[in-house]
Design brief:
Layout (H helix, E strand, L loop, with lengths): L1 H18 L2 E7 L5 E8 L5 H11 L14 E5 L2 E2 L6 H4 L11 E7 L8 H12 L15
Parallel strand pairs: 1-5
Antiparallel strand pairs: 1-2, 3-4, 3-5
């Protein structure tokens, strides 16, 4: 019986340790450079907060600069992270080694570059009626 209680206490202690878990996160930019690593609480820190931090810490010498956190997408483990999730929810199922930093890839997509639904419809309608300007096409053949 004492063994069961010890196991229960150890499990509860593990849950508390996980809730207070500090992780290091670094952000890989499009040109291969990094921001960070930053120390964050895995449960308390959301993806939206990380995006705000990326925008604030963005190097000024880059050609592409996000204006807002909405211009930034974070990718970890091959998945685009959702703003309302925390770091603990975004970790890969096989996990990272505890002593290593979690690397998240940063994609910048400015709001003005995103197409509006009307623009896509306009493009399709014009393509059907051939109102688009003709362009020279390459007729390369790869063998």
């Amino acid at each position: 019986m004492a063994e069961k209680e010890e196991g229960k206490v150890a499990a509860e202690g593990g849950a508390e340790a996980e809730a207070d878990e500090e992780v290091e996160v670094k952000f890989r930019l499009f040109d291969g450079s990094d921001i960070g690593p930053l120390r964050c609480n895995a449960v308390a820190t959301t993806v939206a907060a990380l995006k705000d931090r990326v925008v604030a810490d963005w190097p000024k010498d880059k050609t592409i600069v996000p204006k807002t956190a909405n211009d930034v997408k974070l990718i970890s483990g091959g998945k685009i992270l959702e703003n309302d999730k925390n770091i603990a929810q975004c970790r890969a199922p096989f996990g990272d080694l505890p002593s290593t930093a979690i690397t998240m890839h940063v994609v910048v997509q400015p709001s003005s570059a995103k197409s509006k639904p009307g623009e896509l419809y306009y493009f399709i309608e014009n393509k059907k009626t051939n109102k688009l300007p003709k362009t020279t096409r390459c007729s390369c053949t790869i063998l």
